[in-house]
Amino acid sequence: MPVSYFDDHKAGEVSSRLVNDSTQVKDLLANTLPTMVTSLLQLVGAMVLMVLMDWKMTLLMFIVVPVVILIALPIGTKSRNIAISRQDELASFNGEANEVIGETRLMKSSTAEAVERASGYQKIAQLYNFGKKEAIYDSIAGPLMTMAMMGMVVGILAYGAGRVAQGTMTMDTMFSFLMYLVQLIGPFTTLGQFFSAIAKASGSTERIQDLINATEEDQTTGETIDANGQVLRVDNVDFGYEPDKQILHEVSFKAEPNTVIAFAGPSGGGKSTIYSLLERFYEPDSGTIKIGDTNIADVNLTNWRQQIGLVSQDAAVLAGTIRYNLTYGLTGDYTDEQLWAVLALAYAKDFVAEMADGLNTQVGERGVKLSGGQRQRIAIARAFLRDPQILMLDEATASLDAASEMMVQKALTQLMHNRTTLVIAHRLSTIVNADQIYFIENGTVSGHGTHDYLVAHHKLYQEYVADQFGAEKKTTSVTKESEQQADLANGPALA
Questions:
Q1: What is the dihedral of CA 347, 348, 354, 355, to 10 degrees?
Q2: Residue 387 and residue 298 share a domain
Q3: Residue 490 has pLDDT above 80, yes or no
Q4: Hey, is 62 helix, strand or coil?
Q5: pLDDT band at 133, cuts 50/70/90?
Q6: Cα–Cα distances in Å, from 471 out to 265, 428, 432, 476, 478?
């Protein structure tokens, strides 16, 4: 599915469709359907024998069929609606549970256990109520069906007794007929349960069909290109996540091969959205994005994404080993020497070598056993192994301490060498040497040029520089003053 699908559907809801809905359909096909087929064969066989014995009494038996249908239809419809609501509620519950479990540290640091406990109990109570309603309708349907069947038996018995009294039927034929009739009660009940199960499962099948029929990303068609040495050009791109809310307005920029293009500006201006469009997570509403003379919309999606490397502020690390995370999504086999080589380039070799299992060290879900700087360097090593033609950095050092930032910045400097690099940075000191800086505000490019040019000609950029570089100078001055005072205080003791 495209990224936009997951914008509108919680991961827990999708997994509920994959697991709970499909399990309900599986139970229908694997358990209820075979029993129904057996009952149907038994039903047909018995009815053939009954027709051969006495077609008039067999015809009378069919009078009860409309009664059974009148009972089954409204109850089945109600059961179906309840089953759909129950499955929706279960999907919602799974979605919230997955979200809370995934953010356990936030929940605990916010002391929100009581809130989540209350929310969980409320969800479970709603599920219980749906289950109770479902059970009530099931308990009503069974006795009503049985009553209808027993009424049919009594009616046929009375009719048969009259025929025997008149001499038009022998006692043996009537009891044989009744024997087969009693044997039909089980299959008839099973058929009723089967149609009830179909009604309940129809909600699940609808949800699964919605999932199956959703538009998938086309990853196989399109041109295969080599982005190396080609200009990346964005021309007059408009985009909004919602039709009536535009995020980008006529954004244009150009990235020459092996240059560094930086994006600066206020938060929420649309910088990360530009990256999403370049990755083709979304398509522009208007305008074009080209690599050389080729619109990237015409490029094979797999081929295009294989040539892009993204290192973001929130370095994505999956549960598994360091080896698994380095080679994630890549085809082919990689030797330990190759993996250690990219770890060395990312300044990650030392800390991985110190781990008990080295490359086979388990990093935990979302890499929780690694520090922020370690996760960033693993992500950079992965990018080295991927060897992308276009490198995109999104605040890659923003959340790191000074020591980790220095190591990560060194690794990034190596990674950026001889690649077309796009950088998003709020810290202007990291992009002053960029070949071009594009200032993005309110979804538009309000100015671009080198750092010196923007300082001279762009008022808001001037303010950013004054604020940030002034604060950095002040911090540096305070640090030096503290160090000098510490030296003076330690002087006599050292002497």
A1: 180
A2: yes
A3: no
A4: coil
A5: confident
A6: 17, 12, 16, 9, 11
How many domains, in total, are found in the chain?
A: 3
Do 111 and 252 lie in a common domain?
Answer: no
Task: Determine the pLDDT at residue 52.
Answer: 84
In 3D space, the residue among 79, 72, 198, 86 whose CA is nearest the CA of residue 131 turns out to be 86
**What element of type H or E holds 435?**
none
Task: Give Cα separations from 358 to 15, 317, 329 (angstroms).
Answer: 33, 16, 21
Separation of CA 161 from chain center: 67
* CATH number of 161's domain: 1.20.1560.10
Record the tokens describing residue 246, joined without a space. 């535009």
Quick one: 202 and 265 in the same domain?
no
pLDDT tier for residue 372 given thresholds of 50, 70 and 90:
confident
In the block, residue with structure tokens 């300044």: 347
Task: Kindly provide the residue ranges of all beta strands, DSSP E only, lying in 407-485, ordered along the sequence.
Answer: 420-424, 436-441, 444-449
Check residue 78 and give its pLDDT. 78
Residue 236 has pLDDT above 90, yes or no: yes
DSSP 242: B
B/e letters for 456-472, b = 16+ CB within 10 Å, e = fewer, are eebeebeebbeeeeeee
Query: By the 8 A CB rule, do 359 and 339 touch?
Result: yes
Task: Supply the mean pLDDT for the chain.
Answer: 82
Query: What is the tens place of the pLDDT at every residue in 283-318?
Result: 999 999 999 999 999 999 989 988 898 888 777 888
Question: Does one domain contain both 296 and 436?
Answer: yes
What the block records as the tokens of 67 is: 């009664």
Strand order in the sheet with 248-255: 248-255, 232-239, 286-291, 294-295
Residue type, 328: Y
Q: Rounded distance, CA 5 to CA 21, Å?
A: 19
Can you list the alpha helix ranges (DSSP code H) found in 321-458? 322-326, 336-345, 349-354, 372-386, 402-416, 451-457
Residue 60 scores a pLDDT above 80: no
Give me the amino acid identity at 70.
L
Range of the domain at 57: 3-213
Alpha carbon distances (Å) from 454 to 250, 285, 424, 433, 448: 20, 29, 16, 12, 7
**In this predicted structure, which of 101-110, 210-219, 258-267 has the lowest mean pLDDT?**
101-110
Assess whether 490 and 422 both reside in one domain.
no
Mean predicted confidence (pLDDT) in 77-95: 78
Collapse the DSSP code of 266 into the 3-class scheme (helix H, G, I; strand E, B; otherwise coil) and give the result.
coil
